[in-house]
Amino acid sequence: MASTNTLPYIGTLLQGPRNAITDVEGVSVGHQTLDDGAVQTGVTVIRPHAGDPFRDKVPAAAVVLNGFGKSVGLVQLAELGVLETPIALTNTFSVGTVATAQIRHCIAANPESGRSLPTVNPLVFECNDGFLNDIQQLAITEADYLQALDAAGPDFAQGSVGAGRGMSSFQLKGGIGSASRRVSSPCGEVHTVGALVLANYGRQPQLVLAGHAVGERLATQQATAECKEPEKGSIIIVVATDAPLDARQLRRLALRAGAGLARTGSVFGHGSGDIVLAFSTAYTVPDRVDRPMPTIAMVHDGLLDGLFQAAADSTEQAILHALWRATAVTGRDGNHRAALSEVLPPSSLFSSAEVHALP
């Protein structure tokens, strides 16, 4: 597995101290990984803050770049512009189980949910890990969600962990990756943008790494029929920021993550589910009408370009991390995915001028 400081650095903006989505203050990430023979799957949870998002909702918006997906919660999110549970990532057939776990967790903390209080809107995103994971076993349980939630913290593993355990990208091992960038505005304020990806997409001949078109070279080396098949994968991108943005602006920010995705060779293929969620931690929206609404000045639209660049760069960097931090996995029916670092070490691709310690 390649170490962090042997990878090329995307863009010119400085990273946060962890180069992860958790550089946005208050955000935490946790995993539950199932690694048992044919069962290679898991759950990843992103908490927007340490409190109860049902009580203190977080402004958010989503963009569907290509809708070949089976997520829960997007309709209400689009209507109201807030999220009210942690964000959960898992495999396709486990969306219902994880959504139920989110509902039960909310009821335990808010016993009147669905009675005197509104029902909760669970938020679950998925990718299909069925190549490596025996998805028909429905192995994920509600307890797995709770364990991932309890494990959430500022420092977390990347690669073949959590929801990323069974994921594939570019006919190689995919998974969880994260990165962050910091943006200084003309007004002197500094904001952080962080991205986390669940990478399970891509046709190998199209792979581009830090501007290097390496896909055809890899496809020739591996010479598998799968490299000629149409796009069948997906990617979920979660973007967090501490910049004060409203739901309209967050939707614009989410869209720019697509630029980072496209740089890696994705064309948002017919069979790919490509979804981006963006949220802000700058303020929360109360659940009750008798609680005061926040009074906060939003970032002017004319000052959003730096945040847009940060979303694109941190997304591209997160995908790079997902690919190189992943370890090889063998799963269902002996299906195997090699790690990118095994077939294409960074030293064979990038010059010493391009590979440097992260700033």
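the 2nd protein, sequnce then structure:
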Amino acid sequence: MQITDLPHWQRQKRVVIERIRNDLARYTDPIFHIVLFAAVIYLPCFALVMVGGAVPVGALAALLGVSTIALVIMSPALALAAGIEAYFQRQIAKLPRPSLQGSK
């Protein structure tokens, strides 16, 4: 039996991976929130500009432009943050769940 097969080793590995993921979440979560905020502004403004709503098109066009620029600038960071998050999700899913039977 190798040391890496022991349940204690697997629990420690899981804890380390979850801790790294939580530490990196301080950097990836703001990226997700910024992109979400820009998308929430972009989609209604785009729909209203296309439909030609009662709101002046100048103000909508300005909001649409700012949110478009934010989405374009943040798209590489979003791809990197999503890749990092997916990687850690796969690593955590590979590890066995810790059992509570031995912790009495």
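The CA atoms of residues 76 and 89 lie 20 Å apart. Residues 7-94 form one domain.
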